[in-house]
Amino acid sequence: MERVRASNRLLRYSCNKSLFDRRYNPSSQNSIHNSPSGYSHGFVNKCGDFHLYNGNHKWSVQTCFGFLRYRGETFRDSVEKGSLDSRCRGFGSLAAKVERNPSFSTLNADDISYFKGVLGEKTVVQEEERLAIANTDWMHKYKGSSKLLLQPQSTEEVSQILKYCNSRCLAVVPQGGNTGLVGGSVPVFDEVIINMSLMNNIISFDQVSGILVCEAGCILENLMTFLDNQGFIMPLDLGAKGSCQIGGNVSTNAGGLRLVRYGSLHGNVLGIEAVLADGNVIDMLGTLRKDNTGYDLKHLFIGSEGSLGIVTKVSILTPPKLFSVNVAFLACQDYFSCQKLLVEAKRKLGEILSAFEFLDSQSLDLVLNHLDGIRNPLPPTMHNFYVLIETTGSDETYDRQKLEAFLLHAMEAGLVSDGALAQDINQASSFWRIREGVPEALMKAGAVYKYDLSLPVEKMYDLVEEMRKRLSDSANIIGYGHLGDGNLHLNISAPQYDDRILMQIEPFVYEWTSKHRGSISAEHGLGLMKANEIFYSKPTDTVTLMASIKKMLDPKGILNPYKVLPHSFSSS
Amino acid sequence: MERVRASNRLLRYSCNKSLFDRRYNPSSQNSIHNSPSGYSHGFVNKCGDFHLYNGNHKWSVQTCFGFLRYRGETFRDSVEKGSLDSRCRGFGSLAAKVERNPSFSTLNADDISYFKGVLGEKTVVQEEERLAIANTDWMHKYKGSSKLLLQPQSTEEVSQILKYCNSRCLAVVPQGGNTGLVGGSVPVFDEVIINMSLMNNIISFDQVSGILVCEAGCILENLMTFLDNQGFIMPLDLGAKGSCQIGGNVSTNAGGLRLVRYGSLHGNVLGIEAVLADGNVIDMLGTLRKDNTGYDLKHLFIGSEGSLGIVTKVSILTPPKLFSVNVAFLACQDYFSCQKLLVEAKRKLGEILSAFEFLDSQSLDLVLNHLDGIRNPLPPTMHNFYVLIETTGSDETYDRQKLEAFLLHAMEAGLVSDGALAQDINQASSFWRIREGVPEALMKAGAVYKYDLSLPVEKMYDLVEEMRKRLSDSANIIGYGHLGDGNLHLNISAPQYDDRILMQIEPFVYEWTSKHRGSISAEHGLGLMKANEIFYSKPTDTVTLMASIKKMLDPKGILNPYKVLPHSFSSS
Questions:
Q1: For A312-358, what is each residue's pLDDT tens digit?
Q2: Which of B516, B545, B560 lies at the terminal end of a domain, its last residue?
Q3: Are residues B176 and B294 in the same domain?
Q4: Assuming Cys at both sites, which of B207, B376, B464, B484 could form a disulfide with B260, CB separation 3.0 to 4.6 Å?
Q5: Alpha carbon distances (Å) from A430 to A34, A44, A436, B189
Q6: A422 touches chain B (CB under 8 A)
Q7: A362 and A511, same domain (yes or no)
Q8: What's the CA gap between B321 and B376, in Å, rounded?
Q9: Under a CB-based contact definition with an 8 Å cutoff, are residues B196 and B217 in contact?
Q10: Which whole-number Å values give the CA distances from B542 to A317, B40, B96, B358, B500, in the listed order?
Q11: Which GO terms describe its molecular function (chains A, B) (predicted)?
Q12: CB proximity under 8 Å: A 84-123 to B
């Protein structure tokens, strides 16, 4: 009897299109999207935890309030008092303070002349408006005061720039698409900005092996479009794909939506060309899937956030494009069911599983309340958790049958309370839009404290519940993320920034993560924001070893200073 | 008409079991295997380029002749004259010479007492017989003269050993299963052998995430058996699995048969615990799929062949076990068809493709002529190339249909001339036995010069053909390997070792590989054999950087000396 009921239920949402249509309106705004290439993965405007940079950089004090602080004052206090200068600046949550390294030189007219001699007039940028944009991250959370932006067009130019800066002890910040979330790609003080946008050539693509070689400034979405025409895809996909650059992706070891299927960039990047602080070009640009000739040094540069060298070229293994994509949006009664569903999905869907995302009911409510054109594909019954499952394979009919059989089994086993299976690409997009709309909804809801944590899957939601107990009614606690990768996005939404709330969150959230051997930065990196928090995830000996490597590769510390490593280590 | 013919042909080998059976005798020796666990991946005695170590270490001068040379004399000359001592020894192909580093101390009685105090009597081994085994690699190609073998049982013991050795300037060689092919795991002179066999505990396994944590001395096959019971598999599989240890696999970045599906260990290893030369324990033993908190230092130790630190624990992501395995053995008329078949297989078989191996007709002939119980599953028509395709998925019926449809298409397109699809696990094993029997057959055929190269797939076989032109009738040139990974095993078989042949091969083979930006060691590593050849695959600046890292982590150079880096660099 139970089996029959479950079957009927599955049929209702997977096959009865008219019934499905009554719950869901695919013509609603923002929910329909087809990629320009004609091929769509069924995703629209994937934000992940990013918003695309829109070029509109009006400074919003309110947005920053609570994030930027300076000697115990808030950034707003400082701005009002005019006390914020470039000698000493504090960022981040509770205690991060940083002073300009006095050993760095200050830019002078001779420097500008030198750079113009090497790069030409046009790519040595001193215009205030362009500098204002490059000095600020897209969230308007971090703001530097650089007076110079350079746009090299070749590895040789990057090499000459760094050689000169190193000899002059001029600090630099490498900048890709500037879409990061931890203040890694903007100057902290007056560092010279090395913008990689003009190094945007595809160098080669091998149709047999699927190996792409390109310059670091290639925008991720452009690479995706190029590969789409070749019948391949990038092994990573991010919300910021329209702006972020592959060099930045590699330098920050970007995670994103395809990691559960294709793994991290440490597995997919086959080679790198990087320029060291002294201008030395290190050619690790292999195009081989296997190469065991000595230490694999490229991995040092993957995820080092531009602090060990500037990535100038990348070689990457790209998987063949698979045409069959199915997306289901499911409701689960409790977190344990979500976990069990994940285990079952890995086993039953096996090789076609390409995403397993989750959000709690608070996340869904937030999206439904704050974003236009988004509807809940399920009847408005109370469910505690929602899971989005995507499969990608090479056979439309078979993949669909397989997913339907899996869902039937999951309902019979009581793991899934209800669910909807997208009937076309628009519906698939609209399901993705719910998951990806969470960060946008959070920004609209008011102040938000964002944490990007890796935790053992079984412990992950405990933190959300503990945080709810700690904060009771003073904030709305939201948990969502990449369950398939053990990556929780914990977000605390409040009407406005409030130090009392912040003190309830930190350092508790880091201590809790550390206690469970989690990572305080799953995919966003440390940047400036969490450089001093590294010890919550890494032991002192390991951090000391990192600092030794930094010292060896960049003895004067000119590359992206104040980031990644704790300030006490990098200044010593 | 062509389509009908192709269909009929496919049906003949894929469905008509009785016809298939006439060509193939599954009851023949060596061709049947079921794993003790009851689950078999359809492989038997996977040798890859390895043979399992069998404990029978009688020294064979004939086997070594031509490999070991000492001041211009052959090893045999030296043995006859009694002139081989431990002050200066040459190994490898044409010119590798190495002298004992005079800064290393010589073991004394106080050292032995110290180690006995730390480890106890039983795990401080001085027995000649046991030392003789540990001093020699399984090929009997390399032979050290160590007087001491230590068997630590904990990370703390490894740490104490290294701390002491570093202070005394005693060189050490870490040893796992000692199954390597480049002399990386045996002493060159009198280095203390640190054998990891007793650190063989599984520490934890997470059923939700599939993350396994274990000590470095766990034998790969034991981990496979453990995981099999949990419904998971190791992401790597090697011929040496019955002897090799996970610490050695990680330290050499072992490749093997599952790489085409699951990628390299850089993608699958989540964490490492390693002990540095000074005894410092570096805890990088994360169990998280995503962790962007600082430089990902574990990658330095993956593939550094024990020269930067001794890996003591490993955390690894294991994929769920999939039950449906199909294997096809196909004939192709030319190398271009093999390449095209690979591209098609990636696209059409997509997510279920798990192996794509190739061998030329010379390889097949060698196997058929030298190994007992192996039959050609195809009629004895002349074909130039053979391809083994394996699929692994979660649905027996569907996967089979998919493979059959692919094969039908490949025959219609003229890519495949003939083929056989295994009807059961025994037939699948016998197909694998052909591919994996090549190294064994080569050893039986006489002298063999072995090269493990990564090359762009489209260039790969050109080298085999050029080598045939160079050597004309003086040797039998064999090409086989992991086509799906761009990894060629080039083997030159001759009745006996002959310097004239060797001079025709080297340095030509390395120069040719270098010219095509290939790797002179795809998966075997550099060890002692190719330490001096590194420049064929890596530029000087990169090697210099490697040497700086070695110097930083192991200033006295006590860890696995004379290996990986060129002798000129490591002695400076």
A1: 999 999 999 988 999 999 999 999 999 999 999 988 898 899 999 99
A2: B516
A3: no
A4: B484
A5: 12, 8, 10, 67
A6: no
A7: yes
A8: 30
A9: yes
A10: 22, 43, 21, 33, 33
A11: (R)-2-hydroxyglutarate dehydrogenase activity; FAD binding
A12: none
Stretch among A34-38, A228-232, A393-397, B325-329 having the lowest mean pLDDT:
A34-38
What CATH number has the domain bearing residue B140?
3.30.43.10
Q: Is the pLDDT of residue B48 over 70?
A: no
One domain, residues A406 and A356: yes
Q: Which residues pair with A488 in a beta bridge?
A: A453, A481
* Same domain, yes or no: A264 and A393: no
- Domain range holding A459? 324-516
CB A264 within 8 A of CB A285: no
**8 A C-beta contact, residue B302 and residue B253:** yes
Give the number of residues written for chain A. 572
Exposure string of A50-64, with b = 16+ CB inside 10 Å and e = fewer, is bbbbeeebeeeeeeb
Q: What is the pTM of this model?
A: 0.84
Across the interface, of B456, B538, B548, the residue whose CB is closest to A552 is B548
Cα-flanking dihedrals φ and ψ of residue A433, to 5°? -60, -35
Say which of B207, B346, B537 has its CB closest to residue A291. Answer: B537
Q: Peptide bond preceding B507: is omega within 30 degrees of 0, i.e. cis? A: yes
Shortest Cα–Cα distance, B262 to chain A (Å):
9
Whether A542 and chain B come into contact, CB under 8 Å, resolves to yes
* CATH number reported for the structural domain that contains residue A258 in this entry: 3.30.465.10
Measure the CA–CA gap between A348 and A356, rounded to whole angstroms: 13
- CB A297 to CB B456 under 8 A? no
Q: B346 contacts in A (CB within 8 Å)?
A: 210, 320
Chain A residues near residue B231 by CB distance under 8 angstroms = 347
Q: How far apart are CA A243 and CA A51, in angstroms?
A: 10
Q: Which of B195, B230, B248 is the last residue of a domain?
A: B195
Q: How far is B252 from chain A (nearest CA, A)?
A: 8
User: B 346-365 residues with CB below 8 A of A?
Assistant: 346-352
User: In this predicted model, what pLDDT tens digit does every residue of B479-519 receive, in sequence order?
Assistant: 999 998 899 999 999 998 888 998 999 999 999 999 998 99
Query: What ipTM is given for this predicted complex?
Result: 0.84
CATH of the domain at B353: 3.30.70.2190
Query: If DSSP codes are grouped into helix, strand and coil, which group holds residue B312?
Result: strand
* Chain B residues 211-270 within an 8 A CB cutoff of chain A: 231, 252-253, 255, 259, 263-264, 266-268
Bridge partners (DSSP) listed for residue B215? B313
Tell if the CB–CB gap between A266 and B299 is shorter than 8 Å: yes
**B277 interaction partners in chain A (CB closer than 8 Å):** none
Owner of token pair 């490597």 = A549
Q: Is B389 found in the same domain as B250?
A: no
Amino acid occupying residue B346: K
Would you call A316 an interface residue with chain B, using a CB distance cutoff of 8 Å?
no
Beta-carbon separation of B346 and A320 below 8 A: yes
Query: What whole-number distance in Å separates Cα of residue B151 and Cα of residue B119?
Result: 8
**Chain B residues within an 8 Å CB radius of A209:** 456-457, 486
Cis? peptide before A507, omega within 30° of 0: yes
- Under an 8 A CB cutoff, do B295 and A284 touch? no
Q: Among residues A215, A549, A401, which one has the least CA distance to residue B401?
A: A401
Interchain proximity B268–A267, CB inside 8 Å: yes
Terminal-residue alpha carbon distance, chain A: 71
Domain co-membership, B429 together with B301: no
| Mutation choice for B interface testing from A351, A404, A451, A541 by most B CBs within 10 A | A351
B2, burial (CB in 10 Å: exposed 0-12, middle 13-18, buried 19+): exposed
Alpha carbon of residue B55 to chain centroid: 19
* pLDDT surpassing 80 at residue A3: no
Task: Give the pair of three-digit tokens for residue A317.
Answer: 């293994």
Do B417 and B506 have their domain in common?
A: yes
